[in-house]
What does this fold into?
Amino acid sequence: MKMSYNKLWKLLIDKNMKKSDLRKNARISSSSLAKLGKDENVTTEVLVKICNELKCDVADIMEFVTDEPTQKDEVTD
It folds into this structure.
């Protein structure tokens, strides 16, 4: 399983907010924002700052998704 922040990006669109606005208003670093964009791990502190800014719960900005099987994972004869 991996994390996905697609919910965060959709929420920003709904709130008519740019990523740069979120970064400034939530006081998170550009490197943290880049990690979010790559669905990489960020600290709980970053998630809390985002949730406080957007007035939402962590489940509103992220979710766990299952990894898609690759061709390598499939058994061939």
Observations:
- The chain has a mean pLDDT of 91.
- The CA atoms of residues 66 and 74 lie 16 Å apart.
